[in-house]
Amino acid sequence: MDTEAILKKLTLEEKCALLVGATAFGTREIKHAEVPSLVFSDGPHGLRRQAEGANHLGIGGSLPATCFPTAVTLADTWDTGLVEEVGEALGEEAAVEDVNVLLGPGICIKRSPLGGRDFEYYSEDPYLAGKMAAAYVRGVQSKGVGACVKHFAANSQETRRQASDSILDERTLREIYLAAFEIVVKEAAPKAVMSSYNRVNGVYANENTHLLQDILYGEWGYKGAVVTDWGGSNDHVAGVAAGSHFEMPAPGLDSTRELIAAVKDGKISQDLLDRRVSEALELILSTHDATANAASSFDEEGHHAVAERAAAAGIVLLKNEKAGEKPLLPLAPKTKVALIGDFAKEPRYQGAGSSLVNPTKLETLLECIQDSGLDFVGYEPGFERSGEKNAERAQAAVALAERADVVLLCLGLPESEESEGMDRTSFELPANQVALMKQLSSVNSNICCLLSSGGAVATDWADEVPALLYLGLGGQAGARAALEVLTGAQNPSGKLAETWPKALADTPCDGIFPSDDADAQYREGIYVGYRYYETAKVPVAFPFGYGLSYTTFAYSNLSVHVKQSDVKAGKLPTATVTFDLKNTGTRAGAEVAEVYISKPKARIFRPAEELKGFAKVALEPGEKKTVTIELDERAFRYFNVATGAWEVEGGNYEVKVGGSSEHQALKAVVLLADTHAPDPYMGRNIPEYRTGAVHGIAKEEFEELLGRRLPEPRVTLDRNTCFRDLNHGRSPIFWIVWLVLQHLVKKGAKEGRPNLNVLFIYNMPLRALAKNAGQFVSMGLVDALVREIQGWGLCGLVPAAIVQIFAGDFFLLVWFLWFFAPLAYELIKNLVLNARGEKLLAAQDRN
Questions:
Q1: Which of 266, 230, 125 is CA-nearest to residue 183?
Q2: Residue 194: enclosing H or E segment and its boundaries?
Q3: Percent of the chain at pLDDT above 70?
Q4: What is the C-alpha R_g of the chain?
Q5: Is 557:580 a contact under the CB 8 Å cutoff?
Q6: Are 199 and 164 contacting, i.e. CB atoms less than 8 angstroms apart?
Q7: First-to-last CA distance in the chain?
Q8: Residue 809: which residues within 8 A CB-CB, separation 6 or more?
Q9: What CATH number does the domain containing 331 carry?
Q10: Do residues 447 and 134 touch, judged by C-beta distance below 8 A?
Q11: 229 catalytic per annotation
């Protein structure tokens, strides 16, 4: 049945009810119109399909599924074909588990190493993130289910994530934070896009017409649906008007009633409502056959093998110095090795939060090393995962290290450091781990550190070890993959998808990330990651695109052909880059060849260079291949805020090819025509933006870039007041609530075990109560709470005092009745209205 036929069968109430979640992860089924329920599920690196009756905060209680490497490790593969294969496996598992839409991939840009969900995102670079996401989406959707790209847009921090306002200039928004979404929308046509929690320049993303109507649907020609992040809707009617479809998770029928009233009052036209419902039905119907006709199971061993290949390809060899006459790695058979570190027995293989996967099986280094061909002399945990000192463990590890030729030392960030709902508080590894490494190096200099983390960490300690292998978060098969690389069965070919700075103070947004205020100011502008370090000439520990190999490669014979005629035709120029790549070593291996574009002496300020193409090339020893990389119309453009369009500055451009952002072997110069756009920064006092020295940039210069004044710091007492700000209210009751939350947050941080549910509530605005628990909480009840926080409850002190004088000890009783009466009224009213609404919908469905 087509959508037009279904629309004719639906009542106004059914149409509006279809656009809100009926359960934590599902939409409403309408049987008489043959509309099945649409089922969503986390997560990006493995299915988090929860059992019946679970809520969206029930993290961990999910059905077994393959836990693939997280996005940080998939991105380090730089292998779109492999990522597409991972997507195919994910799509197959989704269909088997009756999931229509997989909530992934996440492609938010990594502004800072402190981002709590950096493990769940691909890169600091939008081109790489977009290409990886497009491959993932193609793979998932090849199985008939949908992928949901998230979080749209400018969503970079977890602190205050549901009510933070991301303030940035239009050029930065377009070139950095929307570019990856543009690539995936145009190249892979995802069936769904998830709007982010935050505001973007003052307007919530889910109701932001500039983001949704002007750009997503208008400029990019998007054909899919938009779903809110869970609890992320602010105003459902405004969201539907702007282009959003599904409000999730299960807000009850309060939002449905609001939408019905908006249509009846003419705020939303019947035609617009029908268009949104038709678009929603397209997603529901287009994914139904895949789940309805899916197999009853998937090949667990086959998917585990895919996970292992992806984990191995994403491992990055950061350091490999000589131990005697040759590099420490790869390890020869029968090498006498000691395995040290708590992560060897209990691996860090994924992050925490909504992406947490219950793996079908989990391999550990301690288990896998038994059949690795190495001479295993023993294991010691060495340190406490919590960070506490343990002299006995350290001494036992030192004694073991003395018996081995090589120490495999497993270091990493504990689970409590990387999670949805919180940002990292430190750039350093736990001090007890670094101290253990120093103790071990005093008795055995042949140490290979195996580092597990979802992002960059400080590596000032790495000078004391000859080998450093970055495992990222390798999923359930990461241990076997690590041993394959250690022993040389797999040649390391991963490259960093983000820069590793020397210190947090070197990062461009140091001091302003994460923002604890209502506004998150993106003062660094377009200078994110390597764009900043290269332009401002800031030394780094490991550059973007960096990764060593057990073999060597040589680049030669670069040629670049630019299609200049495109400019005259009103299109932006493209180019074809061709060069030769040869494996000059003795081992088979794969090299990631990276293409960067730079504009010397640019009139319009820009980064020193930008990634615009790459290819992963596998070569046998001595083999040479001619590599061709196509540069699309995004290669040379910049966004001009004066014309509101993409423009090209004429003149000479450098096309550089090599193995990282710092090391290019080849360079060619090409001449491009100008699109004759005016200088958008003429007359603006922005000297630091012109040089890239944006660390610690002043408020006044940021305002010059924005072209407007920044909003004054504020804490509002309304529906969007966060629980963390209740101390600013005038309600003694909510002061107590704030004190309890403060205590729980500080307790979790002190113990190293933050409670994610507490953090979710702590950063949650009041209106999210209705969006997450709409069966009980309406916006009317939220408004009653707001009145209490604003001090309405204190007004009850006067009648309570009068009663106290004339009727005895009833002061507290009257005051509490004054507080609870409106809440009870709103609660009962909402329950009654929901019951009536469900009864009406059930009756309409029967008819």
A1: 125
A2: strand 192-195
A3: 94
A4: 28
A5: yes
A6: yes
A7: 18
A8: none
A9: 3.40.50.1700
A10: no
A11: yes
Using CB atoms within 10 Å of the CB of residue 214, give its burial: 0 to 12 exposed, 13 to 18 middle, 19+ buried: middle
Contact call for residues 778 and 254 (beta carbons, < 8 A): yes
What is the side-by-side order of every strand in the sheet holding 651-658? 610-619, 589-598, 651-658, 664-672
Q: Is residue 302 a part of any domain in this protein? A: no
Top pLDDT among 785 and 193 is at 193
Confidence of residue 782 (pLDDT cuts 50, 70, 90): confident
pLDDT at 567: 55
3-class secondary-structure state, position 814: helix
Cα 548 to chain centroid, rounded: 26
Rounded Cα–Cα distance for residues 15 and 836 (Å) = 17
Please report whether residue 304 resides in a domain. no
List the one residue out of 509, 501, 512 whose CA is nearest residue 534.
Answer: 501
Q: Which residue reads 């083999």 in tokens?
A: 623
The gap from C-alpha 532 to its chain's centroid, in whole angstroms, comes to: 21
Place 846 in a pLDDT band, splitting at 50, 70 and 90.
Answer: confident
169, 229, 423, 519: the active-site residue: 229
- The torsion defined by the Cα of 505, 509, 511 and 517, in degrees rounded to 10, comes to -160
How many domains are contained in the chain? Answer: 5
Is a pLDDT exceeding 60 seen at residue 424?
yes
Q: Please report which helix (H) or strand (E) contains residue 779, including its range.
A: helix 779-790
Identity (one letter) of the amino acid at 316? V
Q: Are residues 75 and 206 in the same domain?
A: yes
Which residue in 384, 388, 437, 386 sits closest to 408, CA to CA?
Answer: 437
Whether the per-residue pLDDT at 757 is higher than 90: the answer is no
HEC string of 421-474 equals CECCCCCCCCHHHHHHHHHHHCCCCCEEEEEECCCCCCCCCHHHCCEEEEEECC
Q: How far apart are CA 806 and CA 255, in angstroms?
A: 45
DSSP helix/strand/coil, 654: strand
Beta-carbon contacts of 127 under 8 Å, excluding residues fewer than 6 positions away, are 179, 180, 183, 610, 611, 612, 634
Q: Do residue 379 and residue 487 come from a single domain?
A: yes
Domain hosting 128: range is: 3-156+165-292
Q: Which residues of 718-727 are buried (b: 16+ CB within 10 A; e: fewer)?
A: ebbbbbbbbe
Is the Cβ–Cβ distance between 681 and 701 less than 8 Å?
A: no
- Is 62 within the bounds of a domain? yes
Q: Which of these three, 228, 260, 292, is where a domain ends?
A: 292
How far apart CA 338 and CA 374 sit, in angstroms, is: 10
| 8 Å CB contact between 105 and 119 | no
282 inside domain: yes
Asked if residue 585 and residue 441 are part of one domain, the reply reads no
